[in-house]
């Protein structure tokens, strides 16, 4: 069932299973099947394209903790903040050089970028910046529950992460294992994180309007991710066309 069009007034609250199904109904919109991912996983990307991807994904990675901090700032419930806080530590690390962001920088270095050029964001494309900024702005402006729901793309990501890791090891063997640590570490946590987030959303979306807003938020996030890869793909095409 699609919850993307508003139900008539007085429509009943969905049961747990129906609401979960309405969220999962968005899975076909996830970015796993994006043509850029398809080429990445088939080993068809050149080094320039891999560098473009890593430098642009960096902008997403580095904004995620700010998005999560906005959720914390908007949430009045200590038990929810307690559950959400570790996400910031996961990405930023308990110490400098220990978190997910650092692992992404190592991946960028492993594909041949310097840390300085990644941090300078000189390769970040305008469309990627707009899309990722829209995600952070959403979290700043919308109720915390919707922002949490927008992160549920993570529910769809475990298969993609495992597939990507396998295909990258196979097709780009020159990328060091240390460079792939972002994915190995992420795979270890993402199932539990996604399930806990889904339970949180289901528990707190107690009205039909909440449920519809959560589905709309997840749909918006699918658009953010598509826009990121559309932009990278477009630039990659012009790199390939270069003599
Ligand atoms: O590699 C991927 O395809 C992928 C996808 C997603 C996602 O679906 O948003 C995230 C991540 N990775 C990821 O590494 C990550 O830390 C992450 C955080 C979030 C979020 O919205 O809070 N999504 C994702």
Walkthrough of the structure:
With 243 residues, this protein is mainly alpha-helical. The protein has one domain: Heme Oxygenase, Chain A. It has 11 helices and no strands. Helix 5 runs antiparallel to helix 10. The termini are far apart. The structure holds pyrroloquinoline quinone (PQQ). Pyrroloquinoline quinone binds next to helix 9. Pathway: Cofactor biosynthesis; thiamine diphosphate biosynthesis; Cofactor biosynthesis; pyrroloquinoline quinone biosynthesis. One of its GO terms (molecular function) is pyrroloquinoline-quinone synthase activity. It comes from Streptacidiphilus jiangxiensis. It is an enzyme of class 1 (oxidoreductase). InterPro entries: Haem_Oase-like_multi-hlx, PqqC, PqqC-like, Thiaminase-2/PQQC.
């Amino acid at each position: 069932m699609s919850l993307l069009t508003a139900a008539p007034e007085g429509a009943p609250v969905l049961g747990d299973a129906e609401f979960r199904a309405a969220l999962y109904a968005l899975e076909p919109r996830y970015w796993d099947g994006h043509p850029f991912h398809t080429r990445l996983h088939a080993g068809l990307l050149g080094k320039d394209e891999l560098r473009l991807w890593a430098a642009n994904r960096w902008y997403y990675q580095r904004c995620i903790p700010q998005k999560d901090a906005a959720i914390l700032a908007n949430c009045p419930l200590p038990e929810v903040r307690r559950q959400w806080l570790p996400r910031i530590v996961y990405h930023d690390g308990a110490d400098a050089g220990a978190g997910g962001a650092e692992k992404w920088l190592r991946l960028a270095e492993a594909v041949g970028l310097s840390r300085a050029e990644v941090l300078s964001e000189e390769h970040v494309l305008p469309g990627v910046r707009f899309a990722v900024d829209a995600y952070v702005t959403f979290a700043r402006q919308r109720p915390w529950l919707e922002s949490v729901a927008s992160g549920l793309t993570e529910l769809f990501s475990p298969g993609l992460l495992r597939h990507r890791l396998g295909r990258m090891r196979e097709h780009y063997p020159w990328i060091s294992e240390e460079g792939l640590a972002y994915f190995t570490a992420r795979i270890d946590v993402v199932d539990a994180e996604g399930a806990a987030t889904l339970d949180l959303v289901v528990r707190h979306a107690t009205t039909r309007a909440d449920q519809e807003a959560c589905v709309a938020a997840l749909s918006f996030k699918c658009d953010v991710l598509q826009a990121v890869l559309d932009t990278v793909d477009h630039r990659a095409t012009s790199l390939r066309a270069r003599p």
